[in-house]
Design a protein that fits this description.
This protein is mainly α. The protein has helices at residues 2-38, 45-53, 57-72, 82-118, 124-152. It has a single domain (2-152), classed as Four Helix Bundle (Hemerythrin (Met), subunit A) (Up-down Bundle).
């Protein structure tokens, strides 16, 4: 029984850690571009700020997944079964990996948009639209966590 709970919390830890690490990387990728672009175009700081913050949302999805398993479905208890523990672990690992990779790639999209804005091109709206696509996969992964949690609750 303790092994089941350990496995489940390992999945939760991976979900939070990997998506958080991805957000940290994504935000710094776009943040570095913003610092460079500010040298050329200080007036676009508001646009840079929005595009820099965007990759940070995947880390929040990792926390949302934990709250789903704990509060909505209530499966993180000492009575957790092996199937439930495996489901939490698998869902957590999937959410963590998708959050990690989508945040890094979103940061790269945002960084390219920031560089273009810094050079004087009016591409903020287009960059925002294109940067949402990697975000979609993190949202789909969170929906997967919800479906997994509802299946094993």
């Amino acid at each position: 029984m303790d092994t089941n709970l350990l496995l489940a919390y390992l999945g939760v830890g991976l979900m939070i850690a990997l998506s958080g690490i991805g957000s940290a990387y994504g935000v710094t990728i776009s943040g570095n571009a913003a610092i460079g672009a500010l040298k050329k175009n200080e007036s676009a700081f508001g646009n840079f700020l929005v595009l820099t913050a965007l990759p940070g949302t995947q880390g929040l999805y990792g926390f949302a997944g934990y709250f789903m398993f704990q509060n909505i479905f209530g499966v993180l208890t000492p009575q957790i079964t092996a199937i439930q523990a495996a489901a939490v672990f698998g869902g957590g690992l999937a959410m963590g990996l998708v959050g990690l990779l989508s945040s890094i790639r979103q940061g790269q999209v945002c960084a390219n948009g920031i560089a273009a804005i810094g050079q004087g091109h009016n591409v903020f709206g287009n960059t925002l639209i294109l940067a949402v696509f990697p975000e979609l996969y993190a949202i789909v992964a969170l929906a997967g966590v919800f479906l997994i949690g509802s299946a094993v609750a």
